[in-house]
Protein: ElaA protein
Organism: Halolactibacillus miurensis
Amino acid sequence: MFQVKQFDDLTTDTLYQLLKLRVDVFVVEQNCPYPEVDGIDQDCLHLFTEEEGVITSYCRLIPPGVMYHEPSIGRILVHPDYRKKVLGRQLVSEAIRVIKDEFNPSDIKIHAQVYLYDFYSSFGFEPVSEEYLEDGILHVDMILSNRDSKR
């Protein structure tokens, strides 16, 4: 079951788990030292699943005007012990649904790691930038146009 919470509605235990999981995946697992806590979490909605007290999947939903003109989905991850269970696909589908319900956008923008290009394309996201290197990892900006959504 998905949970969506404002930053102030997260318990300290849940916030700690979310931040630890993000660091474990994006900094440690991907061997990419960068400032994971970037100062915008307080403005975001936090979408996640939990099983027996363990956060199993997570992303943050960034309102329009905070990072981009469009709303955005960021920090998309599945706990390493829960991968290969289609949680990632379910998470992105739910994130798109929540963003459409909350913000009624014409577009949704993501800052995607290139190795996940086909995954995001399967939802209808299309590239809007050239590939670029950020923190040692190739990225591409992608847009899901509301009229093109394949939810």
Notes: The CA atoms of residues 78 and 88 lie 6 Å apart. The chain has a mean pLDDT of 93. The beta strands are 2-6, 45-51, 54-62, 72-78, 107-113, 126-127, 132-134, 137-145. The longest strand covers residues 54-62.
